[in-house]
Structure formats: structure tokens, C-alpha cells
Amino acid sequence: MFDWSDLRYFLAVARHRSTAAAGRALKVDQSTVQRRLAELERRIGAPLVKRQQSGCCLTAYGERLLPLAEQVEQSVLALERHVADARREVSGVVRVTCPEPLMYRINASNLFERLSLRHPALKVEFVMCDRYLDLSRGEADVALRAGDTEGNLVGRKIADSAWAIYGSRKYVDRHGQPDRVEDLAQHALVGFDGSMSDHGTAQWLRQVAPNGNIVASNNSMLGMVYSAKAGLGLAALPTVLGDAEPDLVRVLGPIPELARIWRILTTPELRHTPRVAALFDFMVDEVATLRAILSG
């Protein structure tokens, strides 16, 4: 029947008794007030305001319409407050993707217990995967990721990741250990399979030992750890994982070429949603804890 927003102009004129004063109150020019008021009257089919030399006053019909228009205004204001409160409310589920070993280290700390105390209605769901999930396609909301990132993601650095070469004590006793990176070509090696061929560690190993003896291929970091612990061969591992395994010996490194940066990442569209923004703010406040988890 008519544009609801035109009621704002009618209410402003009724309160200020002048189209000029109404314009100042609404931060628009006087002609806009006059035009929108005239359009409202045309749509309704009756005059609402009488223009006088001293200003404006309501017609009898305008006086009857005024309390109804005020009710509409109060309903709209209540709706706006509700929407604003909903935007501020931190609730829902944030799906966080990260490598499986990282989830175990986080779970062993009380990091997310503190998150629950700050935001009781916010829940974190882990999506554990060593390959990079596509956040833009909704495979997860947030990534804790080390290494290169896609250009369409936003986030911040939270820790450094050092890598070294490890072998089991049994392997080292039987086969010795390399003195240089170049010696890796003479050792049995544990690597990633084809699904993880783009991983920075896999690319580095192909460069330094292109004809290396890969005796075990894995599609996860935990698989690499278990293969190395079983004595199958040497493996490149994050120092935070390798150093924590009593059955493993660091034989080389840290390797500068394998150093990586841990980041918390999301899409630009999700970054400022209440649930994701709350998680980002919490992670920033907990950087010291995260560095201990991610870097050792």
C-alpha cells in the first residue's frame, strides 16, 4: 500500500511541526521530507498535514493516524534492538579444522574449558584432517593451519613451527644416523602418500632425496609418527611432536627449509560473525598457551 519508511517523515513533521526541522532531525534536506510526505499522502489517499505560514499541523485524519504510526515505530525499534542483540550474542557451533595431533594437545590443555567459561553458548567442533579443507566451500569455519595459505583467507599468526628429522632408537642402532641432509638418500624414509603430495614436507623430501627409499607412505601426521616409532625409517616431523616421543631420536635439525607459521584462518565473510569473531578474540588472548601447544 505504501512505503513503511515514509512513516518516519510523517512522524518527524508531526513532532517538529515543520518540514525544515523534520529534515534536520532526520539529517536529510527539506525537499526530501516534503517529497516523501507527499508520496505517503498520495498512497494513503488523504492529506495528513496542513501547511501553514507558521509551519505545519496535522489534519484530523493525520491526528487519528499518528498513534498508529507511533506503534509501528515502536515495533520497528523493538525489531532493530532484537536483531542487534542477536548479532552481539555469541552462540552456535564453530567448526575448526586442524591436524589430529594438534587436537589431542589442545584437548590435553584446558584451553577450551576457558573458552566455555567466557562464552557458554559457543561450541567448538573439531574437523580433524591433515590436508587443507576448503573453508570457502563450507568444509569448516576456521582453520588452525601451518604453512602456506590460500589468498582468499584472513587471519593472524599465532605460533612458529619447527621441523626436524627423527628415527626410532632401534632404527638408529641398526642403521646409524645421517650427518647431513644429503645423507637421507641412503636411508629408509617415511613420507606422505599421494593425497598429501602437496604438503611442504613432501615437496622438500622430493628435492633433497629424489631417489630416496620411501618404505612407508601415510596420509596423516600421526601415521608418520607411528611409522617412525615402528622403526620403518626416518621421518620429518614437527619438533613439538617428535621431541615428545621417548622412542624417537632427533637425528637432524631443526631444518630451516621446513620452518612454518601457524595461523588461525577463516573467510572474510565469516571473520566478523559473532561466533567466529569471539573465537578469534579468545585465541589472541591465549597466544601464550597456543604457542606452548603448537611450538613446544
Q: How would you describe the overall organization of this protein?
A:
- The chain is of the alpha/beta class and 296 residues long.
- The protein has 3 domains: 6-88, Arc Repressor Mutant, subunit A (Orthogonal Bundle), CATH 1.10.10.10; 92-159 and 262-295, 3-Layer(aba) Sandwich (D-Maltodextrin-Binding Protein, domain 2), CATH 3.40.190.10; 163-258, Periplasmic binding protein-like II (D-Maltodextrin-Binding Protein, domain 2, 3-Layer(aba) Sandwich), CATH 3.40.190.
- The chain is 45% helix and 23% strand.
- It has helices at 6-16, 19-26, 30-44, 60-88, 100-108, 111-118, 169-175, 200-208, 221-229, 239-242, 268-271, 274-285, 287-295; strands at 49-52, 55-58, 92-98, 122-128, 142-146, 154-161, 163-168, 188-192, 213-218, 235-238, 248-252, 260-266.
- Helix 2 packs across helix 3 (30-44).
- The termini are far apart.
- The model has no long low-confidence stretch (mean pLDDT 89).
How is this fold's topology laid out?
Elements: H1 6-16, H2 19-26, H3 30-44, E1 49-52, E2 55-58, H4 60-88, E3 92-98, H5 100-108, H6 111-118, E4 122-128, E5 142-146, E6 154-161, E7 163-168, H7 169-175, E8 188-192, H8 200-208, E9 213-218, H9 221-229, E10 235-238, H10 239-242, E11 248-252, E12 260-266, H11 268-271, H12 274-285, H13 287-295
Parallel strand pairs: 3-4, 3-5, 8-9
Antiparallel strand pairs: 1-2, 5-12, 6-12, 7-10, 7-11
